[in-house]
Design a protein that fits this description.
8-stranded mixed beta sheet; 5-stranded parallel beta sheet
Length: 414
Amino acid sequence: MTSGISQTEAVPIAACTISRDVQNFDLLIEDMECAMGEAWGDLGFTEALAFFYQSEAEALEFVALAIDAEDEENLPLMTEIITQAKSRNIKVILVAEDVTPAALHKLLRQGADEFIPYPLPEQELAAAIDRLREPAESAAPAAAPQRAHKLHADSQREGAVIVTQGLAGGTGASTFAVNLAWELAELNTTERPSVCLLDLDLQTGSVSTYLDLPRREAVMEMVSETEAMDEDIFGQSLMSFQDKLQVLTSPADMVPLEFITPEDILRVVEMARSHFDFVVIDMPHTMVQWTETVLNLAHVYFAMIELDMRSAQNALRVKRALQSEDLPFEKLRFLLNRAPKFTDLNGKSRVKRLAESLGISIDVQLPDGGKTILHSCDHGQPLAISAPKNPLRKEIAKLAKNLHELGRAEAEAA
């Protein structure tokens, strides 16, 4: 490890760690050595503030501020380090272990460029450094339209909330959410905005990739301070896809799922409901503290599964978890993706046994869209545009039409 700044005069220092004791972050030491070789040093908190005023600091590319629970007592010092680094155009990577969401919130708001949880995920530090080194032009598209739509403060809509959540990785929940939202938007050509798609998978959300939309810094700012959110702030956070579908992408940086609270989610969803006829939400696979909030707000909660053991086990876990907490399990509508073909009698029998063994009803069976679906995220377009005749697209379009007609019927009855 490169110990201190003064000991490495032969090698220009391009980065340094800043911590109470870097020995508490041995994985960070290893990753810094792999990424920077000898071109890095280590500083204490007070040493860092003094070093920023020295001429050698002008060569710094970034600092890795490593903190744990004990350092929360010195949060003002942490924020000052970030402020001083940013004022000198030095990037900041925040490495945190067992730090409360409130503290992370404050430090990220102060201007930290990247957040990595400790212990460090494999290759995550190198990936964060690569992102810091991306040329400024790559972020240019994010400055696209300043506002997706002008949202009116007097809007009185009470949009339907449709939620999708995959109960196992790769079940196709995001593909379903994106295409369902687009099909709903296509059904209504008289009033806009009509459909809003919210990507609440804060860590691995891919809606922006599916629709080739940039992730915006405004999203992080909005979810960080929902108490101050109004129509203008919410509208600034949205991206428009072909002037028909309004999208709230996941944040540009990976943040803890606990970064936002149930109250934050309630404010965001209610704001979307008041301006859109349909609010489609793509949830993370993980159950979080605000899952209950979304479940209670949902008019329909689609749980995506496949005909395999992992989906069956997870569906059973979800059922037990919701029923043990007396939550509205009946809101869940199970969707079977890549369902057997009509002529596959053995497959149909397996589907029936799956539903009976879990004590659930599989309400919708979506066909296998084939290789087209596997590569659909690379097109940056919904299936209705890139593969309109795909059987999965047709089934989603049919479901969207049914939901639209159901919503219209309930509105007329009211």
